[in-house]
Fold:
Amino acid sequence: MKRYRIYLTEGGNEDKKSLNTVAKAITQMNYFLQFIVEYRNGLLSKASFNYYTEYLQNLVEQDKLTSSQKAMRRMYGRRINLEIEKEGYLIWMYEHKFNRVIQNNHQPLLRNDWAKGFEDWLALKSKLTRKTDYGRTLSNIVSLYLEWLNNSSYQSISALSVNQFLREQAHLKISTLNLYLKAIKRFATYYEHSSNDEKRHEIVLEINSLKKFEDSLQLVNRIGLNEQQVSKLFSEANQKQQFILHLGVNMGLRGSSMLHLKVKDINLVTKKMDVWLKGKNNTMSLPIPPTTYHFVKDYIDSNELQNDEYLLGYKGNKISSLSKYFSDFLYKCDLKEIEKEGVLYSISLHNLRHTFAYNALEKFGLITTSRLLGHATTQITEQHYLQDKSRDLLNSLYDEEEY
Structure:
């Protein structure tokens, strides 16, 4: 791999942009070589890349890899777009008649037990009295970063390596990239307290100085569903799916809030529902709309649910289980993607909350909608939920018949 890196940088490919490309190529080459060692007994042949492609496709089908990540891992095999063009690692190895891959028994730069220690540290630092998957989510992101780091040409955790890691996740949404950055920043604080690295203080300062990714002010990230689309979902839904629709479309609940709902949180006398606030130890009481009230009452009765039972029963009460369940339902209804204003939007469970916000802004105004959504300020509501509504209002300012 050192020889290949020297080959890539010879002739002048040493500017910042080229070195970033070289780092990506070495990382992807490392993934391929690890596959050869683990699954092909270290034997390299002209059929190896075909086997590798099949292996990557299996990971995609198992939801362990995205199609974009698969494309990235195959990308540098045959060619590399540098100022002075170079062969991809596959062609280079064939030309040099390599036929065997041997792995050195070196200690990984950062083992994934760091991620487990980080998760335990987060649990100790958390002020929440209820159990959530937030720590596990951040820990999983850190695991991805550490795995990437061990397969990259970077020598240690640093702001530069974090930046490059996030660049390679560019297929993700801005909000997801910011969650990745937040997780790694929290990990950096843990690393500062737990590592013997002499430069750890400087490293943490540099990582914490990395700025959040920002959307264009004109960009609409997520849309609400229209009346026809909501009607279609209700008409094709079973009882549990209808319950999810009621909680999302009619009350604006997050998926995590839906999961934590118990029978005792529903007050059928006052017609209110106690909902856990995101990242807080307390709940807020929300009025239940009439149609949702009658549905919830029938849902509890027909399922003979007891006071301390969860309304939506999922193994481990994991948000990923609920999200996948609803995503499968959207596929069945052919509503996983929706085109609006010439843009194709991916639809998920959270779009139900956006649908509620879109309609509530018109019915109740910004301040009341913000309170119903459990936001600390109206600015949060404006930032996340007003874009789609504002675009539609601008588009409807003038009657088409006037032109």
Notes: The chain has three domains: 1-103, 114-209, 227-397. The two ends are 65 Å apart (CA to CA).
